[in-house]
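Standup notes
- DV: blocked on the single-chain target, sequence here:
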Amino acid sequence: MSYDLKRLPTFDRQAKRLARKYPSLKSDLQTLFDSLREDPTQGAALGKGCYKVRMAIGSKQQGKSGGARVITFVKVTQEAVYLLALYDKSEKET
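- DV (later): unblocked, structure below
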């Protein structure tokens, strides 16, 4: 089953900002999108259908642990994955 991806405006703004900083982000996101279409529940469950997915940014050359995080919301009945937020782990305090 292939899920439909829906990007929120907030996600697009965050992706645009990070794409200026990391040239490989566009292709990295495309790889993640292909993966999410097949397995939308990957990543750490945050509750209420939300997941935090680790994503490597090729330009950083640090792997998933030093890459970005994508927050998703999965709506199984509509077969949709909503992309809520994208942030660089090094810019966000835990």
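- Follow-up: The mean pLDDT is 91.
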